[in-house]
Specification:
The chain is an alpha+beta fold. The protein has one domain: Trna Endonuclease, Chain: A, domain 1 (3-Layer(aba) Sandwich). Helices cover 39% and strands 23% of the residues. The protein contains four helices and seven strands; from the N terminus they run αββββαβαββα. The strands form two sheets. Strands 3-4-6-7 form a four-stranded mixed sheet. The chain has a three-stranded antiparallel sheet with strand order 2-1-5. The two termini are 20 Å apart.
C-alpha cells in the first residue's frame, strides 16, 4: 500500500469495496472506543437497529473523534478477530456494520454475515 491514504468517495459502494480491500491489505480494521465502550449509532435504514461504524484506516476513524464523539479513540481490530468473533457476535446482537462512513456518518449499513461473506469472496478472488 502507498504511504498516502486514499480519500473516501461519495460512492458508498466504492467505500465498501475499499474497506474490504484495505482490511485484507493491512489485516485490521478500526473502530472507535471510549471508557464506556464502542461507538454505536442508530441505523439510518431502521431506527430500531444500531450500527457499529468501522473503518479500514485509522485516519478515517480519527476524523470522527469530534463533538459528541470527542472522547473516542481509534482502536484496531484484527481482521481475523473481526471475521471469527465480531461479525458472528454482531449478527447475534442484531447490529449492523457501517463501513468506511464519510464525514457526515453516512455510508453503507451492512448485515454482519453479508460482510463476512463478501470478505471471504474477496479472499477467494485473491487466491485465483
Amino acid at each position: 500500500m502507498s504511504d498516502t491514504v486514499r480519500r473516501l468517495s461519495d460512492d458508498f459502494e466504492e467505500n465498501y469495496r475499499l474497506f474490504i480491500e484495505e482490511a485484507l491489505e493491512t489485516g485490521c480494521v478500526w473502530g472507535l472506543e471510549n471508557d464506556e465502550g464502542w461507538a454505536l449509532c442508530p441505523a439510518n435504514s431502521n431506527a430500531e437497529l444500531d450500527v457499529m461504524p468501522l473503518w479500514s484506516q485509522p485516519e478515517y476513524a480519527k476524523a470522527h473523534c469530534v463533538e459528541e464523539w470527542s472522547s473516542y479513540v481509534p482502536v484496531p481490530i484484527s481482521l481475523e478477530e473481526l471475521l471469527d468473533d465480531w461479525l458472528p457476535g454482531m449478527h447475534e446482537d442484531v447490529l449492523l456494520v457501517g463501513t468506511n462512513w464519510d464525514a457526515s456518518l453516512e455510508g453503507l449499513e451492512v448485515e454482519p454475515l453479508d460482510l463476512l461473506e463478501d470478505v471471504d469472496e474477496a479472499v477467494e478472488d485473491l487466491d485465483v
